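This week, study the protein below.
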Amino acid sequence: MEDNKRSLRFKRNSNLEESIQALSEILSLIPRPVENNQNHPIIFVLGGLRSGTTLLTQYLYSTKSIYTPNNFLSRFYSNPLVGAKIQKILFDENYRFGNEFDDLPTFKNSNFKSENGKTHGALSPNEFWYFWRRFVTDNDYSLTQNQLTNKLINSSFKDELIALSNELNTPLVLKAMNLNHNFLPLLDVFKKSFFVYVRRDIYSQTNSIINARIRQYGDSKTWYSFPIPYFEKIAKEPIATQAAFQALIINRNIETQLSQIPKENFIQIDYEKFCQEPRWLVDKLAAQLKMKYDFELEINTSDLEQIFNESRLSPSSYNKLAPSIKRAKEILAKCN
């Protein structure tokens, strides 16, 4: 969506954008890494907008055993390996000399705060969309699996992520919502890949999507997040029906793809369960990575019993949304 339609607090900083673009042009002159050995799994988080993907990613990041691209690394989207090396020099306490950089943080930020997917703090998780968009367009969901696989393999996408993971010496977790409708190629690209799929109560998610539109653009009419298949079917529908359909078709397409791969390749969790039992996810992930790749995920944090407050809709809100969700399900049933 055009930046000039965004609410003030979500508008891009033109000075920052120009500087990052200039930096990217310089970084593009540095040879891309070539990595033949993937030492660690790469974990891709799937799920619709406002389903809890950001909170889940923040939580996995807080285990201190899994890394995700952060706000600092996102500035180096054109060459993340360079960014990771600079990050070590600036933020890693193992590279400190005297008191020169004592004013910089030395640990990953896990305060679990975000706004429309945006987090706060240099070392807080970043969705890394600028990096993704170097290789994947918003309309690549329409490509066949082979077409998208070839597109990714014939780029530096795989090598750059593996190099980043190897440099950090840890598994990576990335949100892959831009590939919700076409993520199976990631299995072909990475020999060690894993998926975590989070879904949310459709009423709460629909309400959250509407509110996110208002926060992002100042109104509920402007489309928010990535394009979806069959958009033309709901383009003229009421806002709540659009939002419900958006969530429903994403869930359907993710679940259709997951049904085609072995169960040991993914974890599915409801957002509501995650809020109450976040430790369950980490223990399950550790067990499946051990079974699938013989990889030991060391859980070395004492802050894993965090219970998140999952906001619930009032009965009147449920009743108000019910006709729109019913209508969205009817439209979805006609989309093959």
